[in-house]
Amino acid sequence: MAQKPRELTPWVSPLHNWGFELRELRNLRRLSLRSLAKRAMVDHSHLGRFERAERMATRDQAALLDGALDANGMLFRLWERIGDEHGHVANPSVHVAKSSMDLALGLSDQATSDGEGLSVPCRLRDGSVVWVALNRRALLRSGVGIGAATAIGLASPAAADSGAVSGLVRKARAASTYGSTPVEHLRRTRRLLIDNDNLLGPRHAVSATRDHIQVIQELRRDAKGVDRRDLMELQTQYGEFLSWLYQDLGDPKAASYWLDRAMQWSQTVGDQDLTTYVMARKAQLAGDVADLVDVVDLAEAAQGMARPRSRLAAVARTYEAFGHALRGDADESERAIDDVRNALDGVASDPTPWGVWLNSSYVEVHRAQGLEALGKHDQAADGYAAAIRMMPDGYHRDRGVYMARQAVSMAGARAPEQAAAIGMYALTVAEDTGSGRITNELARLDKALIPWQRLAEVGEFRAAFDATLVHETETDPI
After folding, report:
1. Structural domain range at position 66
2. How far are the Cα atoms of 129, 155, 235, 413, 459 from residue 451, in angstroms, in the given order?
3. Is 39 a member of any domain?
């Protein structure tokens, strides 16, 4: 039996993306590695390493492959984007704290081979917290116990079941035996995955969501007519959801990659609301990474695509409000929030399934987030408190995100003891769910509390947070 090709991770870096596109083009042209090697006059063993991002092609090899695959310069342009990124990133030497492993290794689903990297929050020697890429081998050598290694998926590089997707395909096709269809089965599965994410956090749903995208792609090979369109719509929805999972894990590169794929897929569906929603989500992600250039433009683009006075127009306007705050424009930010508040009653009857979570609490959270960006810490802390009180039950992880942001605002308002107390609650949620968004906010809080580190409550929080991080050390690199 032929070995299953290694799953590629094009969102990790330009080098990984180049390997992914190389394999995609080769498969599209129905060429084996040896056939392409002969056509491009490149060693076939090198080609396999190029595709797996284990080796970088030379300029001449990239040009030869572009021509052999009739890529019209696309493959070569992607190669040029790699620049000097390949081979220059040296991770700091780290040791792994054995407590709170679920938080520190919240991105374990990204690691699919023994040497593949996963990102974890790391305390550098200067005290700052950054996300660094480690590999399975390094983590296992650094002293993670076998029980913890098994729990986070590190114990065996071959742990993933190569037949998992095939089994899921068979299960979807068998849906008719119990009065359903593959499309209905996949819709129910997506709802279950969403519920799972709400309850347990993103890392438990990432692998299953990726697998189901492959299932849908397999089913689309034989589907026709309405079924084929419905499957593409589902593929778009799964792609957007996977982007959200990576966003919550604190991996904006992967989140952006899957949003781009969802946007591309949505264009073939012809559902304007779905495309608009994906565009609004791109604005939200830009706000999460404080992209001052794109956030307002993307939000305005989404509003231009949305039906007038629709819920999606209000969702996009909410993200625009935060974008204005990031740019320091308090008046425009408040004006946008007021527009959304005034629109809430009118959009309640909007039949679209997208953005149904838009309510007063959600709007007030974004107003508070904008106030924090504008340096109005007292008002932001009060805004978060009010929004959290309005939140419905069942949003454990999101409550943790907002409480972490509230704690940052309280530290800015010079209320360190209250900030530390709220931060401890948010830290518990982060450990429960593996949410990278919460971790990032707690890293901000940790830094903001340094002036009061001698206070008992502050010291307790900072010590508890520190225990969840890996640490840069003075030792030789692993």
Report:
1. 14-78
2. 17, 41, 49, 13, 11
3. yes
